[in-house]
Amino acid sequence: VQLQASGGGFVQPGESLRLSCAPYGDRHTIQALHWYRRPPGKQRELVATFTDADETIYADSVRGRFTFYRDDAENTFYLQMNGLKAEDTAVYYCKADMYSGETTWGQGTLVTVSS
């Protein structure tokens, strides 16, 4: 499975963006899908997880503002980000944990939140 991430951009505080992560290959080999981000000058952090039980787990910093969901018709995972803050500025990455034990990363997509 390969992951194609997209959707980043430049927005003002309070606005929204939707990131997408499209798996190319058999989606059913994915045990869990994650969004990570790396803010400027900081370490990478886990933002949200979508499990094979269709459960979502969010970091405290984004809970209530971000929604991670799957669109089966489009075979794509989305991270809807509302109420964006300057501290959400980061390069966002999606990562898949496979049932085989392997992991795969998508390319990063830059989100910049600034007035």
Structural description of this entry:
- Helices cover 0% and strands 56% of the residues.
- With 115 residues, it is mainly beta.
- The strands form 2 sheets. Strands 2, 4, 5, 6, 9, 10 and 11 form a 7-stranded mixed sheet that branches.
- A hairpin with a 4-residue loop joins strand 7 and strand 8 (76-81).
Which of globular, elongated, flat, extended, rod-shaped describes the shape? globular
Largest sheet, in brief, is: 7 strands, mixed
Please estimate the helix content: under 10%
Averaged pLDDT? 95
Uncertain runs are: none
Counting helices, strands and paired strands, the structural category is: mainly beta
Element string (H = helix, E = strand): EEEEEEEEEEE
Enumerate how many helices there are, as a single number. 0
Task: Please count the beta strands (DSSP E, at least 2 residues each).
Answer: 11
The end-to-end span amounts to 38 Å
Radius of gyration using CA atoms only: 13 Å
The share of residues in extended strands comes to: over 45%
List key phrases describing it:
115 residues, seven-stranded mixed β-sheet, 0% helix, 56% strand, globular
